[in-house]
Fold:
Amino acid sequence: PTSYLELLNTFASVITAKRDEVGTLKSRLQKGLDAMADATAEVTSLQAKLKVMLPNLEKSQVAADELIVQIDKDKEDAAATKSEVEAEEASASKMAAECEAIKSDAQADLDKALPALDDAVRVLSKLKKADIDELKSIRTPGRGVVITMQAACLLFGVPPKLVKEDTGTGARKTVKDYFEPAKLQLLSKANGFIEDMRNYDKDGIGDDMIKQLEPFVNDTENFSPEAVERSNKAASGVCKWVHAMYLYATIAKEVEPKRQKLAAAQRDYDGAQERLKAALDRLHAVEAKLADLTARFDAAEAKKQALQKEVETAQGRLERAHKLIDGLAGEKDRWTKTVARLAVDYENLVGDALVSASSIAYLGAFTSDFRSSLVAGWGEQLKTLGVPHSPGCTVRSTLLDPVQLQQWVIAGLPADTHSIENAIIMDKARRWPLLIDPQGQANRYIKTMGRDKSLARNDMDVLRMTDKKFLQNLESGVRFGKWVLVENVGESLDAALEPILLQSTFKLNGADMITLGDAVIPYNSDFRFFLTSKLPNPHYPPEVAVKVSLLNFTITPKGLEDQMLGVFIVNELPELEERKKTLTTENARMQKELHDIEATILHKLSNVEGNILDDIKLIDTLQQSKVTSDEIKTQVAAAAETEKEIDSTREEYRPVAFRASVLYFALADLTNIDPMYQ
Structure:
C-alpha cells in the first residue's frame, strides 16, 4: 500500500509539473508564432500608412516654411513699429515732464496766495448774520470801514452813489459814496453776501480791477485787517477777503504766461499722445497679426511634429518588425512543429505520466531488461484500456531534459539508458535514493555533482554510518542545507535515520523543523540525502524499501564498454580523450546557453505588454539573442564535426572495450556456476 500511495503522489506531481511545463512552453511558442504573424501583417499595414503620411509630411513642412517667411517679415515690421512707438513714448514722456515742471512752477506761485485765501475763508466762516447786520447798521462808519466797503463794491461791481459834500470853504463838490449802495446791495442780504465772498470767481479778476484795488491795498494805515477791526469786526473780515483776492489776482496775473505755456505744452503733449496712440494701434495690429501667424505656425508645427512622430513611429515599427521577423525566421518552422507536437503531448500526458510515475515508484531496483519488459507491458495495457499515451513512452522520453543530461554526463553519469533512467528517478522521486552501487560509479557521480556550487550551494559531506560523529555531522547537514552522502550502507539502516527518510518535518514558529535523535533542529530546504551500498545483490526488507527510492546502479555491459573505451583512450591517446572531454563540456555549456536564450526569448514574447513593435529593448534583445544563438550554433556545428572525427578515432578501440566488458561480465557470472567464484 505504501508503494501504491507513493505511486499516486508521484503521478499527481508528475502530471501537474508536465502539464504546466508543456502548457507553458506551448503557450510561449504560440505567442512567438503569433508575434511573427502580427509583425508580418503589420509590415504591410505600416508600408501603406507611410505611403500616405510621407507626402502629407512634406506638405506640412512647406506650409510651415511659408509661415516662417511671413512671420520673419512681420517681425521686421513689428520691430520698426516698436522703434517708432518707443520714439513717440520718449517724446511724450519728455513733454509730460516739461508740462509737469511748468505746472509745478505755476502752482508754487499760486501756493503763495493760498495762506491768505485760507485765512480769509476761515474768517468768513466765522462771520455771522448778526456781524453783517451790525456793519450795516453803522450810521457814521470810520475811514477803514468806508474803504473796505468801497473795495468790496468794486469787486462786486456795485456802482457808487454820487453825493454833494461840503468842502469846508462853503463850496460843495460831488463825491462817490459806496457805503450806502453797499448796505442796500451787499449787506442787506447778510448770508448771501458771505456766501458770495466764499464763492467769488477769483480767477476772473482782471488787470483793471487789480489797478483799482492797488491803492486800497497799499493804504496800510487805513486798509489793514487790524486797522479796520478797530472799527468793526465784520469789516475786518471783508478787508482780509479783499486783500486775499488782490494777492491771488496779482499772483495769477504773474502765473498767466506760465499757464499759457502750460496749455501750449499740454497741446503738444496731447498731440504726442495721439501720435503715440496711433503708433501703438499700428503696433498692436502688427503684433496681433504676428500672434495669429505664430499661432497658425505653432498649430502647423504641432501638426507637422505629430505627423513626423507618427512617421518615425511607423518607420521604427517597420524596422523592428523586419528585425523581429528576421530574428525569429529560423525558428518559425521548428516552433510550428513543436507547437503541434506539444498539443499531442499534452493530450497524452495521462498515460505518459502514469508510466513515468510507475517507473519512479517501482522500477528502480530492477535491471535494464526487466524494466524494458515491464514498461512495454504497461504500454500494451494503456493501449488496451484506451488511455491516451505516446507510443513507446518511457520515463526517459517523458521527463528527460537534454540540457540537464549533458550536465549529468559531465559529472560522470554513464551514458547508457539504464544509468540515465536512474538519474531521472533520483531527480524526480520524492523519497531519498538508496543506490545499489557495487562498482562505485554512482558514488563518484554524486560526489562530482556535490562539488558543483550551482547544485550543492552549501557543499557536501560524505559520511559512513560507522563514523563516531555520524549523527552530529548529519544534523549539521540538515541544519545548514548541505548535500549528505552516506557510503557503504549495509542491508539494515539505523533507526535514527527514519525521520530523515520519511521527511517528517513540522512547523514551529513558522519554520520547518525535524526531530533527529533527541534534538529538534531547523530543516533547511537545500538539504539533500543520498545512500550508497557496495553490496552487489543486497536484500532490503519491505520496511526499508518503502522508505527509500531503491536504485540498481550496477554497471551494464554497455556502460562498462563505454567506460573501458575511455580508459583505453586515456592510456593510448590521452590528448584525444582530453579533447573529447573538453568538447563534451563545451557542448553542454553551449547547449545550455541556447536553451537559456530560447527560454529568455519566449519569456519576453509571452510577457510583452502593448504592441510588441514598440518594445525597443525587447527587439534589441531578440536581435542580440539571434546573433549570439547563430554564433553558438556555428560553434556547435564545428564542435560536432570535431567530435565526429574524435569519435571515429575512438571507435577504432571499441572492439577492445567490448572484449573487456564481455570478460568482466563472464567472470562476474561465474558465481552462478559456483559460489566460490564470488
